[in-house]
Amino acid sequence: MQSEVDLSAGLCENCHGGASHGAIIKEWDEYSSPSFDMQATLSHSEPTDIAEPSVPDSGKSCVSCKSTDGAVPNLAAPEIYDLNEAALPEPAAVTEWRITCTACHNPHTTALRVEDGVQLCANCHNGRETEADGAPTEYFYPSWEMYSSSDFATGVHPVELTCTDCHMAQKPAGAGTNRPASPGHTFNFDPVLLSDPETENGCSACHEENLASLVGERQENISDELKALRQLEENAGKALETANGTEAYPELGKAYNKALFHIAYVENDGSLGIHNMEQASSHLETAGTLLENVTEGARAAAAAEELAEEPASEAVPGFQAAISFAGVIGALYLRKMKTRPGK
Hints:
This protein has 343 residues and is mainly α. It has 3 domains: 1-124, no CATH class; 162-207, no CATH class; 211-338, Butyryl-CoA Dehydrogenase, subunit A, domain 3 (Up-down Bundle). The chain has helices at residues 9-16, 22-28, 48-51, 60-66, 68-75, 101-104, 117-122, 143-148, 151-154, 163-167, 191-194, 204-207, 211-242, 249-269, 277-308, 319-338. Helix 13 (211-242) runs antiparallel to helix 14 (249-269), helix 13 (211-242) packs parallel to helix 15 and helix 14 (249-269) packs antiparallel against helix 15. 34% of the residues are buried.
């Protein structure tokens, strides 16, 4: 009779709960802290079936990244966009809904299940190649797509940085464990710790103590852009409703959904641009242009519809379609004139 497999962190703690790893396991287990806020904090120690109760009813694909039961067979096929669905358990069979030690480490060797640490993280933290197609926006996690084309990964940054360089910052020797420079297992991004000269992180060599302020400034810029886009989104949504029923409405609706996709892309990356400032700004600029075009095009289409409904138009075949088309083109022409140099 085969014994039941235990994938919990508690099993590891039975042997590794002393001075060597005990502090690391305790640090990872944020969920057990009385002060843990499930609404404000994301943690690998958070049980998915409690934090996201809809996931157990969502099918096999979700268990690949939302449980250790799914992570282990999923990482056996480590290609980033391959969920290895044939090997995944059904949600009802999952026993460990947290991402525990054994999700990333082979319990017999302690080595990572995927030698390339970036690939290990990217196996779950990616957007599944989702693109803006005009359909309703879905939630996704494009951290890999952002990072892989960033300065950190392409050699532009003086030092190539991987996920763990920033998300597993080394602590100063003696801080929390008896081991020097213990890596963090909350996976939180801590620019203050990263630039601490008393650690082995190395960021202080170039950034000294200004890394936190630099990160804060860049994140604030993206946050401000997102707030401005929310107002444009509201305006575009109201304008779109006025054009409901017009010939222009379907295409305007697709453009609106594409704008929401680009906004969600930046929001769901989770770094507020730090993974890739250039790409984040590009997505938000595209979203802004789309929303402004939707607002102007919808208003023009609605105005054209009103003109077409006047009695004089009834005697002119095709008048409604011609006016609608001319209105939309006119609005876009005025927008182009406004953005010309000197205007």
